[in-house]
Structure formats: C-alpha cells, structure tokens
Amino acid sequence: MKYYKLLLLSLVLLFCQCKSTSNIVNNNAKPLDVYLCIGQSNMAGRATIEDIDKDTLANVLLFTGQEHKAWEKAANPFNKYSTVRKEMRMQKLSPSYGFAKTMAQENPSSTIGLIVNAKGGTSIEAWKPGGLLYSEAISQTKKALKTGGVLKGIIWHQGEANSSRYKKYTPQIIALIQALRTDLNQLNLPVVVGQLSSDKPLRNNFNKMILELPNHINNVAVVTTEGLSTIDKTHFDSKSQRILGQRYANEMLKLLAKK
C-alpha cells in the first residue's frame, strides 16, 4: 500500500510540474506580442556577446520550440533555437537583442515574444516560399502562436549573398513578404528590412535599391546602416548590432502606430 501511495504522489507531482512548465505564457498576465526574426548571418548574429549583452531581458521571451517549455526568458544568443542554424558556436549577438530590448521598453504593458530562425550564408533564393528555410519559419511561427500571443511583425536582414544581383532582389523580397503575410493570415503584417554594411563598395547599389522597397509594397520599412561598423567588412560589431536592433524597433513602432 505504501508503494502505491508513493507512486501516486510521484505521478501527481510529475503532472503538476509538466503543467507548470509546458507554457510559460499561461502564467503571464501581460499580452504577448510576437515577432519573427529571420535572415542570414547578421540576423543569426556573429558579433561578440559582451558583458553588457549577458543580461536576461525583462518582459522578453524567446521561443524554444520545445513541448515541455515553449518559451523562456530571453538571453543571448537569440538564434540558439533556430531549426535551420549552423553550429551553436557561431550564434552570437544579433539585432534581435537590441530590437527586443527597445520594444519591451516602449511597450511596458506587453511581453515581447521572439521567434528567431535565421541561418548564415543563405541567399534570398534559399528563402523562397515552399523551401526549407521558409517552411521552417512558418512552422515555428504557427507553433509559437498556438501557445498564445499575437504576431505583430517581422524583421528581416539578408542580402549579402545577393548584393551582386541586386537588380533581381526587389521582386524577390516582395514575393517573400507577400507569401509570409498570406501563410500567416495577416495581409498587412508590418515588415522591417535592413541595409547591408557599406564597408564593401559592391553593396552600395543594393543599399540604394532597398531604400525604395516601401514604394513598392505597403506597410514595409527599411533601416539604414549609416555610421555602423563591422568586424570583417560584412558582419556588424557588437555596438553596431545593438544600434541596428534599436533602429529596427523604431521603424517597427512607426509601422504599428499606423495600424
């Protein structure tokens, strides 16, 4: 009899533990504002995570994709749960950190939830609707939304792999945004994209081209990389990643204010 009582008690405790950790959002009284962060290496993050970046952000959750604990308090590196990422050692500081920090500061009545699913070295062709990267981004977003929250927007940083083919990029990014909006059931979903580092002159035409994107598709904004620096003429350094993230947040806030 004593054995069965202990077994019953263990099962009850296990059930309670699973229930309490299955969805951290259920215990959060604040609304959950969800953002999808995708792109190539700068969005994945290649900058050093410095001491100032080692905090756990208040009112920011990171989607893990794990059944027993879908969300956790956000801490760098933010791309660690990407289902398409390269090896873990390559995941460092990205603009999603500064973005989330700024969004949380500007929206104290809400909790910010991030789905970060980037992969370095990828071209926009690799993100074509129906492909692996695209499908994983959609899948992760839908899984996250099943746990609660509302999708508020997307931030995208990609283009280094396409800078020499910039003339083809506008229709490609428009098609990608339209597909994301359709598959996520928000035809006017705010999207913010970024310029590339100007350390290589080859990217100047791309950066000029991308500034025109809001003239071709609605509810889209562009962040500039003016004044930012890199560690290798491609990947932004830590300070610049923080600033870039703030710029993404500022543009996202402007788009959200129009809705």
* Most strands sheet: 7 strands, mixed
Mean pLDDT: 92
The radius of gyration is 19 Å
H/I helix tally: 7
H/E element order: HEHEEHEHEHEHEH
The count of DSSP E runs of length 2 or more, i.e. the number of strands, is 7
Give me the secondary-structure category. alpha/beta
Q: Spans of 5+ residues with little confidence (pLDDT < 50)?
A: 1-23
Order of strands, widest sheet: 3-2-4-1-5-6-7
- Please bin the fraction of helical residues: 25-40%
- Please indicate the percent range of residues in DSSP E strands (runs of 2 or more): 5-15%
In brief:
This protein is α/β, with parallel strands linked by helices and 259 residues long. The protein is built from 7 helices and 7 strands. Helices cover 37% and strands 14% of the residues.
